[in-house]
Write a structure and sequence with these properties.
196 residues; mainly alpha
Length: 196
């Protein structure tokens, strides 16, 4: 078997870190757990990244970029309401098919809030920059309409909250959203209703 390059190992670390941070958060995830998931030693991990914060920032940036790319691909060649529904549908599929994306987003917000409260603004700067890229990606096919973009992003945060709380597809809580934005059944899973 061919050895992985440092760049391939770095990619493996970012993917593993996103999973670990999604589950345990920044403060609850050890670099040892990330190294173990990748199959490398902690010292090797720190040859790829200078510290835990750099690993978290790489994972956070990847999460934001994945979401931005999903919006851009869904809206490609579309405008207005057609783009809005395409982006909403693509996003709800993304978080249904890979719940770690949603979990990582939520962990990012908690981590940034804690860091900001402690006076550390570096984490927030990176995530805010990613959020602005998301905003711009959504805004463009909506004609740069600030109200439409705000509404889309606000509903997105509502979707995040409802999905994180475990409201299953078909639950009445989703009825106020456009059909394209309602919870999707994860691929290959049978419907189970943890919330009545």
């Amino acid at each position: 078997m061919a050895r992985m390059s440092a760049e391939e190992r770095r990619e493996s670390v970012i993917r593993a870190a996103a999973r670990e941070f999604a589950l345990g958060g920044y403060y609850g995830t050890s670099t040892e757990a990330i190294a173990k998931r990748v199959g490398v030693s902690q010292p090797y991990l720190f040859r790829l990244f200078p510290n835990k914060q750099a690993i978290f920032l790489a994972a956070a940036s990847r999460c934001m970029e994945t979401t931005r790319r999903v919006f851009a691909e869904a809206a490609d060649g579309l405008e207005g309401e057609e783009a809005l529904h395409a982006m909403a549908g693509a996003y709800t599929r993304l978080i249904a098919e890979d719940p770690h994306v949603l979990q990582m987003q939520l962990q990012m917000y908690v981590t940034i809030a804690s860091a900001e409260a402690a006076g550390d603004h570096e984490l927030g700067e990176v995530v805010r920059a990613g959020w602005l890229e998301l905003w711009d990606t959504v805004s463009l096919p909506l004609g740069g309409d600030v109200e439409e973009t705000t509404t889309f992003m606000a509903f997105g945060m509502l979707i995040n909250t409802l999905a994180a709380m475990g409201f299953p597809p078909g639950h009445r809580i989703w009825e106020g959203l456009y059909p394209s934005a309602r919870a999707k059944e994860p691929v290959g899973k049978s419907p189970e209703s943890p919330v009545e």
